[in-house]
Amino acid sequence: MAMLPYGRQSVIDEDVEAVSAVLRSDWLTTGPQVDAFEAELAEVTGAAGVAAVSNGTAALHVAYAAAGVGPGDEVVVPPMTFVATASSAIALGAKIVFADVEEETLCLDPAAAAAAVTSRTRVVSAVDYAGHPADYDALRKSVEGSDALLLADAAHSIGGTYHGRPVGSLADLTTFSFFPTKNLTTGEGGGVAALDPELVKRARRFRNIGTIRERDELRRPDEGGWFYEVHEFGLNYRLPDVLCALGRSQLRRLGEFVTRRAALVARYNEALADLDGVRLPVRQPWADPAWHLYPIRVLDGRRREIYDAMRAAGIGVQVNYIPVHWHPAFADLGYRRGSCPVAESFYSEQLSLPLYPTLSDADQDRVIDVLGAALRGRARPAAA
Ligand SMILES: *Cc1c(COP(=O)(O)O)cnc(C)c1O
After folding, report:
1. 89 CA distance to ligand 1 centroid (A)?
2. Which among 235, 149, 250 is positioned nearest to 193, based on CA atoms?
3. Fold identical between 13-251 and 254-375?
4. Can you tell me whether residue 240 is helix, strand or coil?
5. Percent of the chain at pLDDT above 70?
6. Is 318 in the pocket of ligand 1 (CB under 6 A)?
7. How far apart are CA 292 and CA 318, in angstroms?
8. What's any GO biological process attached to this entry (predicted)?
9. Measuring from atom 4 of ligand 1, which residue has the nearest CA?
């Protein structure tokens, strides 16, 4: 029996046709699909604009660069995230200041964020863990009176809302990932949304090696039609037309994906409500999450045992995430275990159950049965 994954894409004939059509066109990379995908993303997220980029890590790098992060600046990051939320700012010479998460949502704690902000803080990055938006109104207060911008790492949460406002319109900068396990996919891909058009422009420039072609901004505007200048260094983080076509096709089904994910979450919540030995994810009344993960807590020190038992039974459970400051690259810089106790204690119990739009009710029932059996200590490996 094939391992049931914890996440996977949904690609249908419509997506394949959208990509094929672009492969037969004149443009493979930066062409009309990029502009259209960016416009549609801006529409869905309520941002002033979106820059499509080559992956979610690049999106973070671009967003930090657009925010002007440089050597000596501080960036506040919660440790309950994928390492890229922090490492992409390190790439610009920033110092990461870890701030703990809230017990219920596992998103950046506004009080911890406020305590971490200094005169050197350039960006405070929240992460919409599992697809549940962070508390952006409270986080906005945490950065008030400082020069810091608020960033949302929304790799999990595109399609979600906070107090009815869409993810993408909640922070100064919002980053997306379109990796296959995320809420919509372009294979590899990502986006940077911003509320200020100037930040969108800076993001697009960094993505395109820093090149400037706007005549009114050139230092030598009369050089000729071929002329461009680089004022600030950038990288090539472009997302090709071929993949933007896939993104546009996927975006048409985002609502469907989010609805199916929510239905599966409701089924898990109901089926697992009375199960001893686990705690289920919490939804705040002000959030309409775009559930990317279904993260449970396995109590009584049994996470390793339950992980092994479910894997042996063909259920591809996952752990999201290893606290970022525990990675040796951070430990070697002097970051210490124990500094973010809420995130660290959550990590020691965390287990992600399979969640993706094409997960069938029958397969989900199998996950539920295997988890129940494992908790009762009766899990058997699948027959070899
Ligand atoms: C997936 C992810 C990223 C990185 O995205 P890639 O497209 O894999 O580079 C960043 N942050 C979080 C929270 C993620 O889950």
Report:
1. 14
2. 149
3. no
4. coil
5. 98
6. no
7. 13
8. polysaccharide biosynthetic process
9. 56
Best residue for ligand 1 mutational test, from 77, 88, 177, 192 (most atoms within 8 Å of Cβ) = 177
Report the SS3 class of residue 23: helix
Residues 74-99 have pLDDT tens digits of: 999 999 999 999 999 999 999 999 99
- Give the N- to C-terminal CA distance of the chain in Å, as an integer: 9
Per-residue pLDDT band at 2 (split at 50, 70, 90):
confident
Distance between Cα 189 and ligand 1 center (Å): 10
CB of residue 57 inside a 6 A radius of ligand 1? yes
Is 221 exposed, middle or buried (CB count within 10 Å of its CB: 0-12, 13-18, 19+)? exposed
Q: Specify whether 141 is catalytic.
A: no
**Dist. CA 214 → ligand 1 center (Å):** 32
Task: Read off the tokens for 74.
Answer: 């501080």
Choose the CATH number for 13-251 among 2.40.50.140, 3.20.20.450, 3.40.640.10, 2.60.40.10: 3.40.640.10
Is the pTM higher than 0.70? The answer reads yes
- pLDDT by residue (tens digit) across 316-335? 999 999 999 999 999 999 99
- Per-domain residue ranges for the chain? 13-251, 254-375
Query: Rounded to the nearest 5°, which phi and psi values hold at 278?
Result: -135, 155
The CATH-assigned architecture of domain 254-375 is Alpha-Beta Complex (3.90)
